[in-house]
Amino acid sequence: MTFSSHTWAVLLAAGSGTRLADACGGRRKQFLEFQDLPLFWHSARTFARVTAIKGLVFVFPPEEIEACAAQVRALDAANSLGLPWLAVAGGTRRQDSVRNGLAALPHDCGRVLVHDSARPFMSASLVQRICVALEAGAQSVIPALAVTDTIKRVSGGLDGGRVAATLLREELAAVQTPQGFDLALLRQAHERAETEDWQVTDDASLMELAGSEVRVVPGEACNVKITNPEDLRLLEEQAMPEVSVTGFGYDVHRYAQATENPKQPARPMVLGTVPIPGAPEVLAHSDGDVLLHALTDAVLGCLGKGDIGTHFPDTDKAWDNAASSLLLSEVLLLAQREGLRLMHVDLTVIAQVPKLAPHREDIRKSVANLLGLSAAMVNVKATTEEGLGFTGRKEGIKAVALVTGLRQLP
């Protein structure tokens, strides 16, 4: 397993989409629009919300590469991903397009996620699960769903063919993307595929043929692939009444050096996923990101769904040292299901130390990326309490968050 901490994503948008061509007037499905944005851009925005993803490679049709790259530049200028990105030309087959995308990855990339842009509904939580499994040492990771229908092997086709066997449903799974890999091993598998003329439909199959272990994480029922004409209904906007909602969040963490006999471990300070060098360590069950904790509570406030302690209790070992961005992603997925669209976020950090002015813009951009908002719709402030109270005595830090959004009426 490569020990580089850098993970990039390769986003495949070079397919011809022949099964949808007539229904789409000859337009490639990855360029269809949903909520006024092309399908491939929805996946790009989701990747950008996961802090483990450090960059993106878009793979476009060779004959449209210049126009597509210009479109990405325009989309990124209007609502920045906050990530470096590259655009490369695809190949004849899917595996050729993947190989071209892998060739463009930077030298310090050690892991890669490969995703089909025709799956625009994946969540940041799914991406996070795959990244966590790779960071734990997996060579290959795929999301999969249990098969609920009885599956039969048929000879002679569906029109007049005969059943050859009934397969064990317990041993079957429907596989999705993104799929995650150790980059060096995936490149080796692609080299063998080219030399030995392997024909596959996904990269996990290449890894299986190359003898690598492929692990499975839970997929998502909503992570559907736009493939057939009937799938286009998923892109239809449903006119639903919306109301304006507001959520308030508040969180506090003690500093480690100001506490005798602490009951929680000391964590390096991060705010909005941004490390704060030289800052006091904080006591926390998770990673102690006080700003994201307050923000998560504010989003839950918009939903009327309790607080962060209810959903992620500090008695649950599963959240020990968990990235607060993961907790936020879980709540954002809930917000998506509940029909909540975030519109604006106002955040305030209250602390005597450290000084946060040098980090304010980095925090603002990071939070904007996590929420899928323009940085112009995220405000971050820092203040002191003039030496008063526990923050004034440099014993801790606190944060407040105000979130406004639009929510569909039930």
TrEMBL record:
BP-aspect Gene Ontology terms: isopentenyl diphosphate biosynthetic process, methylerythritol 4-phosphate pathway; terpenoid biosynthetic process
Primary role: Bifunctional enzyme that catalyzes the formation of 4-diphosphocytidyl-2-C-methyl-D-erythritol from CTP and 2-C-methyl-D-erythritol 4-phosphate (MEP) (IspD), and catalyzes the conversion of 4-diphosphocytidyl-2-C-methyl-D-erythritol 2-phosphate (CDP-ME2P) to 2-C-methyl-D-erythritol 2,4-cyclodiphosphate (ME-CPP) with a corresponding release of cytidine 5-monophosphate (CMP) (IspF).
Native organism taxonomy: Bacteria, Pseudomonadati, Thermodesulfobacteriota, Desulfovibrionia, Desulfovibrionales
Marked site (Positions MEP for the nucleophilic attack) residue numbers: 169, 225
EC number: 2.7.7.60, 4.6.1.12
Catalytic activity: 4-CDP-2-C-methyl-D-erythritol 2-phosphate = 2-C-methyl-D-erythritol 2,4-cyclic diphosphate + CMP; 2-C-methyl-D-erythritol 4-phosphate + CTP + H(+) = 4-CDP-2-C-methyl-D-erythritol + diphosphate
Annotated ranges, domain 2-C-methyl-D-erythritol 2,4-cyclodiphosphate synthase: 246-404
Recorded family membership: In the N-terminal section; belongs to the IspD/TarI cytidylyltransferase family. IspD subfamily. Belongs to the IspD/TarI cytidylyltransferase family. IspD subfamily.
UniProt-recorded name of the protein: Bifunctional enzyme IspD/IspF
Keyword Metal-binding among UniProt keywords: yes
Listed cofactors: a divalent metal cation
Keyword check for ATP-binding: no
Pathway recorded for this protein: Isoprenoid biosynthesis; isopentenyl diphosphate biosynthesis via DXP pathway; isopentenyl diphosphate from 1-deoxy-D-xylulose 5-phosphate: step 4/6; Isoprenoid biosynthesis; isopentenyl diphosphate biosynthesis via DXP pathway; isopentenyl diphosphate from 1-deoxy-D-xylulose 5-phosphate: step 2/6
Natural source organism: Desulfocurvibacter africanus subsp. africanus str. Walvis Bay
Keyword annotations from UniProtKB, A to Z: Isoprene biosynthesis, Lyase, Metal-binding, Multifunctional enzyme, Nucleotidyltransferase, Transferase
Residues involved in a divalent metal cation binding: 251, 253, 293
PANTHER family: 2-C-METHYL-D-ERYTHRITOL 2,4-CYCLODIPHOSPHATE SYNTHASE, CHLOROPLASTIC
Stretches the record annotates as 2-C-methyl-D-erythritol 2,4-cyclodiphosphate synthase: 245-410
One Gene Ontology term of the molecular function aspect: metal ion binding
Region entry 2-C-methyl-D-erythritol 4-phosphate cytidylyltransferase, spans: 1-243
